[in-house]
Write a structure and sequence with these properties.
By secondary structure, the protein is of the alpha/beta class. Helices cover 29% and strands 16% of the residues. The strands form 6 sheets. An 8-stranded mixed sheet has the order 3-10-12-11-15-16-17-18, with helices on both faces. The chain has a two-stranded antiparallel sheet with strand order 1-2.
């Protein structure tokens, strides 16, 4: 498998002195039964293709970048059926609404139940209706490769015109880790092996990252200070009608996510949050995608299962934080400068406006920190957490103490969250946290390696979600009965 340890300082590698293919086939590989195999001899990926260690690492990273594009395309395919939409911060959306000259006639804006919902190149369902294309002139789409580019099937367009699928922003290098204090090019923490860390170890977990971008034996990691970007608070609008956001005409300014077409109208909504580092939307661990198979390394099984169980799905892209502008300089996506910024913007733009009464999160590693930071911000804005009925974490490195969460947030986590941690204990075996510090429920993920936890805990996670949903709906029914009885007594 070419598992050779790397001692390079990869920040100092000259990425311009090597030229690599631009397709998976060009690298000499293809996916067969979800496994990445050599086209020539059918063998698994070989990391060591040269005696030049720097070349081997860059070869691996470049292949990983292409696989990211491949994962995006698969999520847009008919099998998974997701849509790619932009993440636009609240202040920018308000500015657009006030922009002079932006009217229905000129911009093809859509209105639903009297609300302006902006331009929409993709189609979304809302309250049982199909929300069609808003732009009068769709962008150019390569007709020869519509399925791979993520174009919406022609039969979905009433006018039989091709609908635009936003082109994935170019210029993203693999080591996009300097995202507002977020750990660079690495995955946070090894996780909890055979119990939980003490205070100092927990602090190290929050500051260090597990290098999931490299091969199994590459242990290099670097520390940065975590920065939580300030957000502009706004009033609670959870009871408003869902709003479909436009795809931007300037593709290099905003981050993006993937959502199911029914995400805004389903009664249940599942949000998937990956960890830190080079992974992007739809991925749990790039190393597993390359060295194992798609089921083990991607979120595809979660997306499929969620849709089967009646969930609307939102796939976050928390590490897509910056791009290279026309001057060759790094520029941050508005509303997605960091993972914490991204998840907050997605809540404001999509989740808070969705019809779902029942919201669940599945988050891996640093994704747990993002979910907790979101809850902290919502509590600061006096937004109830009651809609969040379940939080399934896989080797999360969140911390009540280090993140200075409010008591309300801690109580809610204890009520609805469970963390499947890396351990040599059997799957679902409850683990004593120890060290006198409180946390949500901890159980074994059934695997000792951090990056495997989301895959190994898959069935247990959905069993937990089902139990929490049933518990939540039962509580709501009992509350309705009590309210009805009180009303009767008053009469």
């Amino acid at each position: 498998m070419g598992d050779t340890p790397s001692t390079l300082n990869h920040e100092e590698c000259d990425t311009t002195k090597y030229e690599f293919p631009k397709t998976i086939d060009g690298f000499g590989y293809h996916f067969v039964d979800d496994k990445l195999l050599s086209i020539k001899d059918g063998r698994p990926f070989d990391y060591q293709v040269s005696e030049d260690m720097e070349y081997n690492q860059k070869h691996y990273e470049k292949l990983g970048e292409i696989i990211t594009e491949f994962v995006y395309e698969q999520m847009l395919s008919s099998e998974l059926g997701l849509l790619r939409v932009d993440v636009i911060p609240e202040d920018e959306r308000k500015r657009r609404e006030k922009c002079q000259g932006c009217n229905e006639k000129d911009q093809g804006e859509l209105k639903i139940q009297g609300q302006n919902v902006g331009q929409c190149d993709n189609e979304l369902e809302m309250e049982g209706q199909n929300v069609g294309q808003g732009n009068k002139e769709p962008a150019n789409v390569d007709q020869s490769n519509t399925e791979q580019s993520g174009q919406i099937p022609e039969e979905m367009n009433e006018n039989k015109e091709p609908l635009d699928s936003q082109v994935i922003a170019e210029g993203h290098s693999e080591n996009q880790g300097d995202n507002g204090g977020h750990l660079e090019g690495q995955e946070v923490g090894e996780g909890h092996l055979k119990g939980q860390p003490d205070d100092q170890q927990q602090q190290d977990l929050l500051a260090e990252s597990k290098d999931e971008d490299k091969q199994d034996q590459s242990e290099a990691a670097e520390n940065t200070d975590a920065e939580i970007p300030e957000q502009t608070s706004d009033t609670k609008n959870d009871d408003q009608q869902p709003i479909v956001s436009p795809i931007q005409s300037e593709p290099d300014r905003y981050g993006f996510i993937f959502i199911s077409k029914d995400a805004l109208i389903c009664d249940k909504l599942l949000i998937l949050v990956h960890g830190s580092g080079v992974v992007r939307a739809g991925q749990w661990a790039r190393r597993l995608i390359i060295n194992e198979d798609l089921d083990k390394g991607t979120q595809f099984p979660y997306i499929k299962r969620a849709k089967e169980e009646g969930y609307g799905v939102i796939v976050l892209n928390t590490n897509e934080n910056f791009y290279t502008d026309s001057n060759g300089k790094k520029a941050y996506y508005k509303g997605s400068r960091s993972p914490e910024d991204h998840i907050y913007s997605v809540w404001k733009q999509y989740i808070s406006k969705a019809a779902a009464k029942h919201i669940a999160f599945v988050a891996h590693s640093y994704g747990g920190i993002c979910v907790m930071e979101l809850c902290i911000k919502l509590e600061l804005e006096s937004i109830s957490l009651d809609r969040i009925f379940a939080i399934a974490l896989t080797d999360s490195v969140h911390s009540f103490w280090h993140q200075q969460s409010q008591q309300v947030v801690e109580d809610h986590f204890k009520k609805v969250a469970c963390n499947w941690v890396s351990s040599d204990l059997p799957l679902d075996k409850e683990i004593d946290y120890g060290y006198g510090r409180e946390d949500c429920k901890l159980v074994s993920a059934g695997h000792e390696k951090h990056e495997w936890t989301s895959y190994s805990a898959f069935d247990s996670v959905f069993k937990y979600l089902k139990e929490k949903y049933q518990q939540r709906t039962k509580e709501m029914e009992e509350n309705d009965e009590q309210t009805g009885q009180k009303d009767m007594d008053q009469v």
